[in-house]
Description:
The chain is mostly helical. 63% of the residues lie in helices and 0% in strands. The protein is built from 14 helices and no strands. Helix 11 (196-218) packs across helix 13.
Amino acid sequence: xGTSSSFGGPKDTSRLLPAWAQGNGSExxxxxxxxxxxxxxxxxEQSDTNNQKPDVQQxxxxxxxxxKNMMSRYSGGGGGRGGLAKAGKxxxxxxxxxxxxSQSVRSGKTTVRNLANFLSTASRSGLAQxxxxxxxxxxxGKDVDTVFSGLIDAIAEEGADFDKNIARQAMDDAxxxxxxxxxxxxxxxxLDSLTAEQIKDAIENFVAGYIYKRWLQELGxxxxxxxxxxxxxxxxxxxxxxxxxxxxxxxxxxxxxxxxDWNGNEGQHLIxxxxxxxxxxxxEGEI
Length: 287
């Protein structure tokens, strides 16, 4: 299909790297924009302030270079599970903490909301109704590849924007299982009978895939630069996704995706919490 290559495995997306991710990381300083010392005091107060150490005035976060070094060390086979935990903690710290990391997610939130909305509608009212609701009535009755290609275009935002491209790639993780089943059977019946657990699983896979892909690309594709083996690269991907997915799973544990208004406040708050808790999980070195 037009985007069936989406389901063909990892892609080289280094071209999506922002300029700061390719350099030494100095262009994005997590301390930028943070509260600065008071400049309205007397001369003596200002003198006292000048004599204070910077770390007294504001918390110190890891630099991007530190985060890159940690990830490179882990991807090169150093540190084991603890090495991955340190790499994740340094990464979220370099972004300014879990809150700021979550706030930087834009297309990732929009896309997973669209995905959850579509899948829950298909489960409740059938695939044809879900396609109609998304303005895709022209796909009703079409073949598997055509429908999945149209779904990706409708659910994921298009554009050259870094965040949009990451979200579009994460659709691979969310839809891969559905696509394989429908493709093997040459039927879309599976999308007409989705369970709440299947929808939760798709949401978890999307968020985990999004965070993993963004993490790696923001750090300058350290895995590629370390020239690790394909087996090690796959192992790294599986480990990171598993840790993030476990966190998302806990957040969704008592939720029924079929009863949530994904376009309303409840859906928005849940999606915000999914990302923030996932980044908190990584920042605390729990992986």
